[in-house]
Write a structure and sequence with these properties.
This protein is α/β, with parallel strands linked by helices. The protein has helices at residues 13-24, 75-80, 115-132, 163-178; strands spanning 2-4, 10-11, 31-39, 46-53, 62-64, 71-73, 85-90, 95-100, 137-145, 148-155, 184-187. The strands form 3 sheets. Strands 1-5-6-3-4 form a 5-stranded mixed β-sheet. It has a 3-stranded mixed β-sheet with strand order 2-7-8. The N and C termini lie far apart (52 Å).
Length: 203
């Protein structure tokens, strides 16, 4: 376990006050705030922020103490959360911590660029779209990140009950053959909004 003073995350004043309030409510026990990246997927990033007792720290944890309280993080979360901002948000329906993380920007938030994206785009136009066009569909490249391809289906592919089969047995096979560096393919289509699916999904 290592101790350092500068935390990789910034707490808003309200977030700090909220944490300190939680700690004061448990003043009989020395607690720390653990922050863990439960899912680093840019499609659905999830974070666990919990109070822990001292004996719950792990040997590999990194401990920060510049926020008025101890912050405990595992090394991987330290890297992913570097530069993140944590706020406390309250609404009529729920309340909780909100993490704004520049390292997990939304899919498609940046222009497509680079040789890998160019090759994937070429493979889609040359090998994928001519096939799905027979069903009135079209596949659009949304993003390429860490060798994972993010696609959006349109036309007859959007809302199609066979979309997952098309993706796994057709599109994924073709793209991995043409661009072997690809390690995964994700469908980011909102299939519930499809208005002319070639195959209707069963209810």
């Amino acid at each position: 376990m290592s101790n350092t003073t500068k935390a990789p995350v910034e707490f808003t004043d309200l977030a700090k006050e909220t944490v300190l309030g939680f700690l004061e409510g448990n003043s009989d026990t020395r607690l720390a705030l653990r922050i863990h990246v439960a899912s680093p997927s840019p499609l659905d990033p999830r974070y666990d922020i919990t109070l822990i007792e001292q004996h719950e720290k792990c040997e590999e944890d990194v401990v920060f103490d510049d926020s008025g309280f101890e912050v405990v993080m595992d090394p991987e979360s330290v890297k992913i959360l570097d530069g993140a901002r944590i706020d406390w948000v309250e609404t009529l329906m729920e309340s909780g911590f909100k993490v704004e993380n520049p390292n997990l920007e939304p899919i498609g938030s940046k222009p497509l660029e680079g040789p890998l994206a160019d090759r994937v785009q070429q493979a889609i136009e040359q090998y994928v779209n001519p096939g799905v066009a027979q069903h009135g569909g079209r596949v659009t490249l949304v993003d390429v990140r860490d060798n994972i391809v993010y696609l959006q289906m349109g036309g007859g592919c959007q809302g199609c009950g066979m979309a997952s089969v098309t993706l796994s047995q057709g599109i994924e096979r073709i793209l991995k053959e043409q661009v072997p560096e690809i390690t995964g393919i994700e469908d980011v289509t909102n299939h519930s909004e499809g208005d002319s699916p070639y195959f209707t999904a069963e209810k």
